Write a sequence for this structure.
């Protein structure tokens, strides 16, 4: 053949052989002319000659020959002659390209998905991607968090380079919501999101800590620097006098994250704040819902390996300076003499030890280590994410450590062309804790004259105190109690998702949370002087908990013209069970043993065991409608039963919500506005429930807690006694919260500046209040008052305004981003029965209760006398006493140097009637500010967090400014009032006749506002040229400083305090806060 | 495609099957019972459960609020100034020591709570035991056992009410119209039932006598060694005698006390006397009723352990907290009576064993001018430190013993002008104390020739010496009407001057916490 078109050549071959050719006319240049002369040549060789330009590849399958433009990948499949299905696919078109940002820098990790399919890949480290599409009509969707998504029609292009623009509002982000997802632009509820990139920059080891300062309306307080310790969380103010923890949902199943979760595994955290967002969780959503979504493998045909390591050292931010021996003796002697008491004779001995217990006790290394390795990958049929992590924190207190081991496996499998999906999220974790033993805190009680060690002490050689003194050797006490808490957990879920019809999806998830806790504690025999126990003992405590969840969800999603509908219906059942067990044996003939087999003494099972059973059964549904993506309506309802919380009549509760959104910026008059790029108004209202109450309050039962007697002669035959344990309240029912929310989303300057504002009113009704019963009813165990009866009586109101602002800008090579949020809130207890009030807020052993919750006031307000001044002279005092009806204005032995309280009712004497509200422990404002800067290969971030307009009760002053009993105290005591040095601090006198430190007064209430520099991080990305030699795609080293600075007027150790809802804001004897300096490296292969 | 459809269908069926399997019928799924506790509806259906409930009635007497810790050392021995204080940091305790108690005093609150806990448990038992007796659940032959149980619970309820009326009653037993405390005989079913107003002293005594008489009728004369700590018929008789004495109904008091005096009891010999208070002769021939304690090395008192913490509070330096010690005035008051050395440890002379081995007792406050500084001995371990025994002590606590009954009997006889017999019973107690034979008159130690009020005052002083630190003194001086003059003898304690106000300080205030939750109550007069 001479000079024939390729089309004709191929036609000729077809006619002369059994072969058929397949090709795309757009791909093969059929008009090209060739000349060909062959005989007895294989078809393969013939084709090689025809397409000798190398632009085309040919694949043979039986008698069919597929001709395609060349792609190296397919050469091999040609040679190996793979099966037909594969080859048909290869008819598809391949597209590749590079993704860069506005400054020309490549963006790794951008998701590239063929629209309308689940086919997707992620860009590599250099921003390169490659994806196979069905043909020119395909559309690629490029998306990346924080950047505006783009849709690009493929056409005939094989190379598509994309420049992605910043999109501060990330309008098309998909946000995880209850039992589903929603585009941010279509949200009508109030939801705060935190993404994995934000978490990366935080040095937190707990998920709940990560919420601090990051989400408007979410208050997180971390009152302790103890490794693994929990912060308190309040979403939108304190919603109840009872428990107000938010509900945690991980990958669609309710489960806590506590201290066992690996923060590195988190893809995003969503906090559902208003009723419309959270009502789908009904009975447990009253105090907010936190949705945690873990990472999954990306569909990028590539194995990603990420390794991260950090090592740091924590140290106490602030420790009190304790009196040394001579100072103690001086102050204690003066204190006794002032009260007409003799100093202790032993104080006059010479050569007494001089121990600084603060230094001795807080001498832990504070070493922190975290290692994380994650491997992930995916194809369009399956993906996986596997990670392993270790985290170890040595406490700043001696003999105190927390360790965590994590293993996670998440995968998804798509079957039947993606119509059936199955997958799982699994977490296996172990936490090991060497806890602090005694009430952790400052060793006030131990006097400097007790040595740390004393070789003559037969019980371990620890130092002992004098006989008159009851305190322990705090270091010996920690070390001699060999406690180890081991908690193994298995948490996860498997799901099955089926596309029943084009728009109808069914999803079923089965979740399990299993936790097995074992506490072992061997207590050596000890003697610290007056505090002695000559018998060693071993305690075993175990607690196994299991929660099974099954839910079934149908989702229908349909768009007809401008109308979009979405409907969801679901059914959920939760079954919880747990068994706890506790046993003690005494008298082991060895120094340390963890085996009961060695015990020679008695066995005891005081707390015996507990069996917990709980059930939740729910039906729920949600309906969404939107018109032109401009007007949005949503309604949801959930019906819940929670056992064993409520009796038969009140078993079920119904929790509806409604919301609406209006994207004003989609209206014609704003559509192409030069400044306003997005404006949305949101309205919502709904009812939420809370079952945060004790179990079985509706039933009457008999129990033998702490009730024993022996009737035999030598008293050895101890028998239990059962008694009526509680008064039932059959009428107990759900506590309800009704919340209304108005929100505005605003985006300016092409969304470079975005603002989200919300105002809410949250009313709690039928609040469960444990109404005290008269003591004369008598139903209680030893040393306890009769249990109050929980009744639905209280009401509370919280109002608040929240604002989150985000601004980002790029100047040449400098990129920066500022995210700030602030929340203002107000709490009022609006009703409680019969002028009742709740006292709380333990101010320590000197003071007792410090707070009162009463109608018309914020919950847990400080309540006591108003401190006026220190009485400076006898004449001043005499004037007061003369005017008093019985000649005593304050107390019998009040003297100059004592506190003067304000006579509020004008009766010229101080009585209980002069007490008033002296402070509010709930902040007026909480805020957070995050700044990220990137310049070339350097990145810098700073995170500030603070609270403003809050009162803290400095309960420590009752110990730091006086000699209480024989306790040591801090050097503050040296500043006490004396006739010659008239300071503003009360005189020191044993037994405190005026009650300076025994009475709750405003003397102790201080402004607890603070601004903390939570984190500063400086990072450096190693250059690519260097990395390619190491076969690494990414490496970043960084140095990080946490809690490095606190700005506050508070005089105590740290103003960040927490406490129960009716006893909030008391700073007393807590484990000191820590600051941490750490270094880290993050590698990607 | 067909296969795929089938798989769809099958998976649907499987999911719904799982649903059913998992949830079952929703009502069953939600129906839970508290497995940690016994359900009231089915509880009182067998006698064994009645027995378990009765155990809790006894147990409530040794709660932390009562004889487990607080009651004796912080109330009964503070109000009459048996003790002086070392530890001054506890303002509530200081109030007790200076007779300046206020209604928010937490110790008063604790003791109130403790006694009403006893009442509540006894009531619940009595109500349900009576129902059981009439029910179909009772088995043949159980009736007598149930009756004996009711007898015990009735006794304990009477004893609790007797304690309450003596602590909070605004008048003596001879002033029946004065207000006392709520008299509760049933378990409240509603919130309204819980609001019980104050009964009169007379009403309370009527109920106390009635309950003691039920006990007297139903209880056996004695118990086998395995049940020896239970109350018996003589315990009830002894208390009936005591109650009638309080009412100054001397003939009845004499009848009942006589039954005890002539019953199967005798004073332990003088060499065993000291041991009565150190767990050495428990359930002796002298014992009418004692609380059964046993050193509990594992379970703390506040967790329901079988020991008591009294010794922790009262034991001398090094062996206990030594928070209180006998008031110097009491040491002087004993004079050369040998019972001083049964009750107190002389500093520098007496020896105890503590963490440092055998050592002589340290003087309390040696620098105080004229101070004697003795420590407690009665109900305190001598051969080890309470610190080493899980802070508790196992010596039984005597509620009523023959020595005390002899003196009550003497008091009755004196009131009935049978002074010779009265004197003999006082002398029996003295002879034992002095190491003599109880029944052989001994001019060396015997009182002679005393009659009338002279004898009366001698008996009172003898009660002070014999029953020192046994929880009797406060009730005695109040019923004799001499609390104010007695307090004056002590003048001051270490926390301040004693300021006894008559009549208000003869009784404790109804605790504020009770007043705030029980609107049916009126505050105690003067508080």
């Amino acid at each position: 053949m001479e000079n024939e078109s390729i089309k004709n050549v191929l036609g000729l071959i077809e006619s002369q052989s059994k072969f058929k050719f397949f090709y795309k006319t757009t791909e093969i240049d059929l008009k090209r002319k060739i000349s060909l002369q062959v005989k007895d040549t294989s078809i393969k060789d013939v084709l090689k000659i025809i397409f000798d330009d190398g632009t085309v590849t040919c694949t043979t399958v039986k008698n069919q020959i597929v001709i395609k433009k060349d792609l190296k990948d397919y050469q091999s499949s040609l040679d190996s002659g793979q099966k037909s299905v594969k080859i048909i696919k290869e008819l598809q078109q391949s597209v590749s390209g590079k993704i860069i940002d506005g400054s020309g820098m490549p963006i790794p990790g951008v998701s590239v998905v063929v629209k309308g399919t689940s086919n997707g890949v992620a860009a590599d480290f250099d921003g390169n991607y490659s994806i196979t599409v069905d043909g020119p009509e395909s559309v690629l969707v490029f998306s990346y968090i924080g950047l505006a998504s783009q849709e690009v029609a493929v056409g005939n292009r094989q190379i598509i380079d994309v420049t992605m623009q910043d999109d501060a509002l990330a309008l098309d982000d998909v946000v995880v919501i209850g039992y589903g997802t929603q585009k941010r632009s279509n949200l009508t509820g109030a939801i705060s999101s935190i993404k994995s990139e934000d978490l990366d920059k935080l040095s937190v080891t707990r998920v709940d800590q990560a919420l601090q300062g990051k989400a408007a309306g979410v208050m997180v307080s971390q009152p302790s620097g103890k490794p693994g310790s929990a912060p308190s969380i309040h979403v939108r103010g304190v919603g109840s006098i009872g428990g107000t923890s938010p509900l945690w949902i991980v990958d669609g199943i309710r489960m806590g994250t506590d201290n066992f979760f690996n923060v590195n595994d988190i893809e995003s955290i969503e906090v559902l704040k208003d009723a419309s967002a959270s009502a789908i969780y009904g009975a447990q959503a009253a105090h907010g819902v936190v949705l945690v979504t873990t990472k999954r493998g990306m569909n990028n045909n590539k194995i990603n390996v990420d390794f991260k390591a950090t090592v740091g050292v924590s140290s106490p931010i602030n420790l009190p300076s304790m009196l040394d021996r001579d100072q103690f003796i001086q102050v204690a002697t003066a204190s006794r003499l002032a009260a007409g008491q003799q100093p202790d004779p032993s104080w006059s001995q010479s050569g007494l030890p001089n121990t600084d217990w603060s230094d001795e006790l807080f001498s832990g290394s504070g070493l922190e280590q975290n290692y994380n390795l994650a491997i992930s990958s995916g194809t369009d049929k399956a993906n996986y994410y596997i990670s392993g992590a270790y985290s170890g924190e040595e406490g700043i207190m001696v003999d105190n450590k927390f360790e965590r081991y994590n293993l996670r496996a998440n995968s998804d499998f798509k079957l039947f062309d993606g119509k059936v999906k199955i997958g799982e999220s699994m977490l296996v974790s172990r936490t090991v804790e060497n806890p602090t033993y005694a009430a952790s805190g400052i060793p006030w009680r131990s006097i400097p004259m007790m040595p740390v060690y004393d070789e003559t002490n037969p019980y371990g050689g620890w130092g002992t105190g004098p006989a008159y003194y009851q305190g322990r050797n705090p270091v010996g006490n920690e070390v001699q109690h060999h406690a180890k808490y081991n908690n193994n957990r298995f948490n996860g879920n498997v799901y099955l998702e089926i596309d029943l019809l084009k728009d109808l999806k069914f999803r079923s998830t089965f979740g399990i949370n299993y936790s097995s806790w074992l506490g072992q504690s061997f207590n050596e025999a000890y003697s610290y002087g007056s505090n002695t126990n000559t018998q060693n003992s071993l305690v075993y405590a175990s607690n196994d908990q299991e929660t099974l969840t099954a839910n079934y969800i149908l989702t229908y999603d349909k768009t007809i013209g401008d109308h979009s509908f979405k409907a969801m219906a679901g059914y959920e059942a939760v079954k919880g069970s747990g068994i706890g067990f506790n046993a003690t044996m005494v008298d082991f003939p060895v120094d340390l043993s963890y085996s009961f087999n060695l015990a020679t003494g008695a066995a005891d099972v005081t707390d015996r065991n507990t069996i917990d059973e709980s059930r939740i059964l729910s039906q729920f549904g949600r309906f969404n409608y939107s018109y032109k993506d401009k007007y949005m309506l949503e309604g949801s309802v959930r019906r819940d039963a929670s056992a064993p919380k409520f009796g038969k009549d009140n078993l079920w509760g119904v929790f509806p919500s409604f919301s609406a959104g209006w994207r004003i910026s989609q209206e014609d008059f704003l559509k192409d506005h030069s400044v306003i790029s997005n404006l949305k108004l949101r309205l919502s209202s709904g009812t939420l429930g809370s079952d945060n109450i004790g179990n079985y309050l509706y039933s009457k039962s008999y129990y033998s807690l702490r009730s024993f007697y022996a009737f035999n002669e030598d008293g050895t035959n101890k028998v239990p006694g059962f008694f009526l344990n509680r008064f039932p309240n059959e009428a107990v029912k759900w506590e309800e919260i009704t919340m209304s929310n108005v929100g505005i989303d605003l985006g300016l300057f092409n969304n470079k500046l975005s603002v989200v504002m919300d105002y809410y009113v949250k009313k709690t009704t039928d609040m469960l209040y444990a109404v005290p019963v008269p003591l004369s009813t008598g139903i209680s165990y030893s040393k306890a008052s009769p249990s109050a009866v929980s009744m639905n009586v209280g009401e509370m109101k919280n109002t608040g305004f929240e604002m989150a602002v985000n601004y980002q800008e790029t100047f040449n090579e400098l990129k920066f981003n500022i995210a700030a949020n602030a929340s203002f809130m107000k709490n009022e207890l609006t009703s409680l029965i019969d002028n009742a009030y709740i006292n709380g807020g333990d101010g320590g052993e000197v003071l007792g209760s410090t707070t009162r919750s009463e109608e018309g006031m914020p919950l847990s307000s400080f309540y006591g006398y108003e401190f006026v001044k220190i009485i400076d002279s006898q004449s001043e005092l005499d004037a007061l006493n003369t005017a008093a009806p019985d000649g005593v204005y304050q107390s019998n032995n009040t003297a100059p140097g004592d506190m003067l309280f304000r006579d509020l009712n004008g009766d010229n004497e101080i009585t209980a009637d002069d007490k008033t509200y002296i402070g509010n422990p709930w902040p007026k404002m909480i805020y957070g500010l995050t700044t990220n800067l990137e310049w070339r290969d350097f990145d810098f971030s700073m995170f500030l967090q603070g609270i403003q307009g809050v009162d803290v009760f400095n309960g420590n002053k009752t110990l730091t400014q006086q000699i209480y009993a024989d306790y040591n105290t801090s050097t503050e005591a040296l500043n006490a009032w004396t006739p010659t040095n008239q300071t503003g601090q009360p005189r020191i006198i044993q037994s405190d006749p005026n009650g300076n430190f025994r009475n709750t007064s405003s003397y102790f209430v201080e402004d607890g506002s603070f601004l903390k520099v939570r984190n500063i991080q400086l990072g450096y990305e190693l250059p690519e040229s260097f990395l390619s030699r190491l076969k690494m795609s990414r490496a970043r080293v960084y140095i990080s400083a946490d809690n490095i600075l606190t700005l506050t007027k508070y005089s105590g150790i740290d103003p960040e305090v927490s406490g129960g809802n009716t006893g909030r804001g008391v700073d007393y004897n807590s484990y000191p806060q820590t600051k941490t300096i750490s270094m880290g490296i993050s590698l990607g292969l | 495609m067909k296969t795929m459809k089938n798989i769809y269908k099958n998976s649907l069926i499987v999911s719904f099957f799982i649903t059913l399997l998992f949830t079952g019928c929703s009502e069953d799924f939600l129906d839970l019972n508290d497995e940690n506790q016994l359900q009231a509806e089915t509880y009182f259906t067998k006698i064994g459960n009645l027995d378990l409930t009765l155990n809790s009635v006894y147990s409530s007497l040794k709660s932390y609020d009562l004889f487990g810790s607080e009651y004796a050392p912080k109330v009964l021995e503070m109000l009459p100034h048996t003790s002086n204080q070392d530890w001054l940091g506890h303002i509530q305790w200081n109030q007790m020591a200076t007779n300046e108690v206020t209604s928010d005093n937490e110790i008063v609150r604790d003791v109130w709570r403790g006694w009403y806990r006893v009442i509540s448990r006894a009531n619940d038992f009595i109500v349900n035991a009576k129902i059981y007796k009439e029910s179909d659940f009772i088995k043949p032959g159980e009736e007598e056992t149930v009756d004996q149980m009711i007898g015990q619970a009735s006794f304990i309820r009477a004893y609790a009410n007797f304690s309450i009326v003596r602590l909070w009653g605004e008048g003596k037993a001879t002033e029946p119209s004065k207000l006392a405390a709520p008299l509760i005989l049933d378990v409240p079913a509603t919130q309204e039932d819980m609001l019980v107003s104050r009964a009169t002293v007379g009403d309370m005594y009527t109920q106390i006598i009635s309950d003691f008489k039920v006990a007297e009728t139903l209880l056996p004369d004695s118990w086998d060694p395995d049940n020896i700590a239970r109350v018996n018929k003589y315990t009830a008789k002894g208390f009936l005698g005591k109650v009638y004495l309080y009412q100054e109904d001397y003939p009845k008091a004499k009848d009942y006390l006589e039954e005890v005096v002539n019953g199967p009891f005798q004073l332990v010999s003088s060499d065993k006397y000291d041991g009565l208070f150190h767990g050495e002769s428990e359930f002796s021939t002298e014992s009418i009723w004692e609380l059964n304690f046993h050193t509990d090395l594992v379970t703390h008192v506040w967790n329901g352990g079988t020991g008591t913490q009294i010794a922790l509070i009262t034991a001398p330096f090094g062996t206990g907290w030594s928070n209180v010690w006998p008031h110097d005035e009491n040491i002087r008051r004993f004079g050369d009576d040998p019972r001083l050395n049964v009750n107190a440890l002389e500093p520098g002379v007496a020896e105890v064993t503590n963490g440092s081995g055998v050592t002589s007792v340290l003087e309390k406050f040696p620098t105080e001018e004229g101070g004697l500084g003795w420590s407690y001995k009665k109900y305190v371990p001598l051969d080890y430190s309470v610190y080493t025994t899980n802070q508790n002590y196992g010596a039984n606590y005597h509620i009523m013993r023959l020595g005390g009954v002899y003196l009550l009997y003497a008091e009755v006889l004196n009131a009935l002008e049978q002074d010779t017999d009265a004197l003999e019973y006082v002398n029996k107690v003295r002879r034992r104390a002095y190491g003599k034979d109880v029944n052989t008159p001994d001019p060396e130690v015997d009182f002679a020739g005393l009659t009338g009020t002279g004898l009366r005052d001698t008996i009172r002083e003898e009660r002070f010496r014999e029953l020192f630190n046994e929880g009797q003194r406060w009730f005695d001086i109040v019923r004799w009407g001499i609390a104010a003059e007695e307090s004056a003898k002590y003048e001051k304690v270490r926390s301040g001057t004693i300021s006894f106000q008559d009549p208000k300080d003869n009784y404790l205030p109804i605790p504020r916490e009770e007043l705030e939750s029980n609107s049916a109550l009126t505050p105690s007069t003067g508080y």
Notes: The radius of gyration of chain A is 35 Å. The CA atoms of residues 753 and 807 of chain A lie 4 Å apart. Residues 71-90 of chain A have pLDDT under 50 and may be disordered. Chain A has 13 helices and 59 strands.
